[in-house]
Specification:
Radius of gyration: 25 Å
Domain Catalase core: 8-389
CATH class of the largest domain: Mainly Beta
Distance between the termini: 76 Å
Largest sheet: 10 strands, antiparallel
Number of helices: 12
Bound molecules: NADPH dihydro-nicotinamide-adenine-dinucleotide phosphate, protoporphyrin IX containing FE
Organism: Sphaerisporangium krabiense
Strand content: 15-25%
Oligomer: single chain
Number of domains: 2
GO molecular function: catalase activity; heme binding; metal ion binding
Binding site for heme: 337
CATH topology of the largest domain: Catalase HpII,  Chain A, domain 1
Low-confidence stretches: none
Shape: globular
Family: Belongs to the catalase family.
Length: 482
């Protein structure tokens, strides 16, 4: 027979009742000396941390990355060496909705991976699309404001969304993806993941390469139509969380084939597209995908708040063999994530179990709220007390020349850089007739919201005509503007 534990305060002191507050007589006022009940109420008032300012609603699971191919000629990163197995945590999310919003709303999906490598945490914080809406971080908060809620009535507003998009033509590629049925994936298991940015890889000899990551679903791509996604919202707001949790619980472990595209370092300067522009892909004809391994999710979290809500991903967590590229969006994100974690979770968020590296930590950072383990003496560097010392060899391979005037400017244009050329290729060469029909229908449905003005509808038609005249015609006809 198992012995039932007795309730205690959080300090471990036995609690006398789970039902009755301490009172003066059965009807009497309550007493301040009832520390147990006061602790319960005070603790309850502090249960919520702020939700993520974006990607608030999500779910996640633990898993493993297995590398099956030898890519040591491209990177010396330990986790990418053939035969390596690395534990990981992956969080999926929607972007614009709040913590209680519905999983199947039209939105990109987050695909954020934390690899617990022997050389510290490597975080790859991507989406289910290989591109993004904007290419300069100075526009990010404005973009997000336009997708969230108005100031006056706190409503989401499609007019505001189209206003931002049509004034930001670099958004066309991502909005095309978003408006196809890939904007409403059937489950997180049935979508791809992408690192999206270009990253720098360097090998043990210091040779450098640019790389893009593709995680291709082994379950196959499956999407909802707009109508199906809407119907699911009415049935089950937590459809995707439930799907992932149930599949893993039943031993049906989802997996993704891990591919990379690799560009020689020198090829970037005169490649036909700016290879660091986050609104562009690298066409496969130029840089085919190379399979390097498999990512499998194997274990559910045991505690949603502790492990999913407090998970903190940061694109700045890069390990030896991998470094940032000059992608301006990536550069902005290197700052943004640790900054929001210090605010949202607290200064010592990296000590929480889901975020704590499995590699040893020898840092001179100390103290602060909720610090769990602290470095001992010496508390400074350099020191003559044999404390940890940095090793400059870890930087070898990562360095490259940059020079230029300090300016505020768009990227220098490469030969074929144009905001519409790649969404046009998607429309012309990749989408099936059914995909195209649904794309037009989804755009028309979205831009037909009552708040979208007549002038805005004209701008919407112009935006899509720039992608392709047939698409423009379809949207115009659907909006009654033919
Ligand atoms: P390819 O024909 O070699 O590749 C097309 C890509 O599109 C494949 O990765 C395909 O893989 C993906 N795709 C297929 N159906 C859809 C869909 N309905 N929505 C989004 N993606 C889809 O051509 P290119 O590499 O020259 O690219 C052509 C266009 O395809 C690009 O302009 C871009 O819009 C899109 N694309 C390109 C990617 C790349 O990294 N090169 C990646 C994804 C899209 P799958 O069906 O497995 O997703
Ligand atoms: C979450 C900022 C662009 C993917 C977040 C969060 C912030 C943020 C502040 C909340 C993090 C948290 O509270 O834990 C930014 C900024 C960007 C940017 C400033 C551009 C300058 C992108 C891009 C991608 C992306 C381009 C994908 C390619 C994600 C994902 C999450 C996230 C997946 C959720 C991570 C998780 O699951 O916890 N972003 N973001 N973001 N962002 Fe971005």
């Amino acid at each position: 027979m198992t012995i039932r534990p007795y309730t205690t305060t959080d300090a471990g002191v036995p609690a006398p009742s789970d039902e009755f507050s301490l009172s003066v007589g059965p009807n009497g006022p309550l007493l301040l000396q009832d520390h147990y009940v006061i602790q319960k109420m005070a603790q309850f008032n502090r249960e919520r941390v702020p939700e993520r300012v974006v990607h608030a609603k999500g779910g996640g699971a633990y898993g493993v990355l297995r590398i099956t191919e030898d890519v040591s000629q491209f990177t010396k990163a330990g986790l990418f060496q053939k035969g390596e197995e690395t534990d990981l945590f992956l969080r999926f999310s929607t972007v614009a909705g709040e913590l209680g919003s519905a999983d199947t709303q039209r939105d990109p999906r987050g695909f954020a991976i934390k690899f617990y490598t022997d050389e510290g945490n490597y975080d790859l914080v991507g989406n289910n699309t290989p591109i993004f809406f904007i290419r300069d971080p100075s526009k990010f908060s404005d973009f997000i404001h336009s997708q969230k809620r108005r100031a006056d009535n706190n409503l989401r507003d499609h007019n505001m969304q189209w206003d931002f998009w049509t004034l930001s033509p670099e958004s066309a590629h991502q909005v095309t993806f978003l408006m196809t049925d890939r904007g409403t994936p059937k489950s997180w298991r049935n979508m791809h993941g992408f690192g999206s940015h270009t990253f720098l890889w360097y090998n043990a000899a210091g040779e450098k390469f640019w790389v893009k990551y593709h995680f291709k679903t082994d379950q196959g791509i499956e999407n909802f139509t707009d109508a199906e996604a809407g119907a699911v919202i009415a049935q089950d707001a937590d459809y995707h969380i439930r799907d992932l949790f149930t599949a893993i619980k039943n031993g049906d472990h989802p997996s993704w084939t891990v591919n990379v595209q690799v560009m020689p370092f020198e090829a970037a300067a005169d490649y036909r597209f700016n290879p660091f522009d986050l609104t562009k892909v690298w066409p496969h004809a130029d840089y085919p995908e190379i399979t390097i391994g498999k990512l499998t999710l194997t274990r559910n979290p045991e505690n949603y708040f502790a492990e999913v809500e407090q998970a903190a991903f940061e694109p700045a967590n890069l390990v030896p063999g991998i470094a940032a590229s000059p992608d301006k969006m990536l550069q902005g994100r290197l700052f943004s994530y640790p900054d929001t974690h210090r605010y949202r979770i607290g200064a010592n968020y990296l000590q929480l179990p889901v975020n704590r590296p499995k590699a040893p930590v020898h840092s001179y950072n100390k103290d602060g709220a909720m610090r769990y383990s602290n470095p001992g003496d010496p508390v400074y560097a350099p020191n003559s007390a044999n404390g940890p010392a940095a090793d400059p060899s870890f930087f070898a391979g990562e360095s490259y020349q940059v020079a230029g005037e300090i300016i505020r400017s768009a990227y220098r244009k490469h030969a074929e850089d144009d905001d519409f050329v790649q969404p046009r290729a998607l429309w012309e060469n990749v989408l099936s007739d059914t995909d195209r029909e649904h794309l037009v229908g989804n755009i028309v449905g979205h831009a037909s919201a009552p708040e979208v003005t007549g002038d805005m509808k004209k701008r919407v038609v112009e935006y899509w005509t720039n992608v392709h005249k047939d698409l423009g015609h379809g949207v115009a006809a659907g909006l009654g503007l033919a």
